[in-house]
Amino acid sequence: MKRSVIETALGGLVILVALSFLAFSVNTAQVGKVSGYELNARFSGIGGLAVGDDVLISGVKVGSIVAVTLDPETFLANVRMSIENHVKLPADTAALISSESLLGGRYLALEPGAEEDVLKPGSMIEYTQAPQNLEQLLGQFIFSMQGDKDKQPSAGESAADAHP
């Protein structure tokens, strides 16, 4: 009988801890959400940018990605973001998709312009830049290094012989 009471109490404690963890997780998830106005941007590629990723200005989070869709007519990626209400962006703001690190996730970097007019809710950011493809950059670097080797004089040639 005593063993049964201990097992029941322990089971209740485990359930209580699990429910507490669940409540904490739900509250933490709500903290990261940004309520504000929405803006849109079109990109030729998004390179892994996903819903929930951060929108940053000078490294400071000012919003998050709300939706990523494909325009069936232009085949461009439409990115919808939510920006904090107190952040007023000039109409010539640029949007760039960047990486946190070589192995890290993506984020959308906004670079405010100098125009006096501000973007209104639902506006399209006109100036965008898709992310750089790391494999493509490495390939260009390797081939450029190979090209430099081909131009260097061999061990038997002098520098004067190599360049007519």
UniProtKB/TrEMBL annotation:
Residues 36-113 form the Mce/MlaD domain. Coiled coil: none annotated. InterPro entries: ABC_MlaD, Mce/MlaD, MlaD_Phospholipid_Transporter. It comes from the Bacteria. GO terms for molecular function: phospholipid binding; phospholipid transporter activity. This is Outer membrane lipid asymmetry maintenance protein MlaD. It comes from Micavibrio aeruginosavorus.
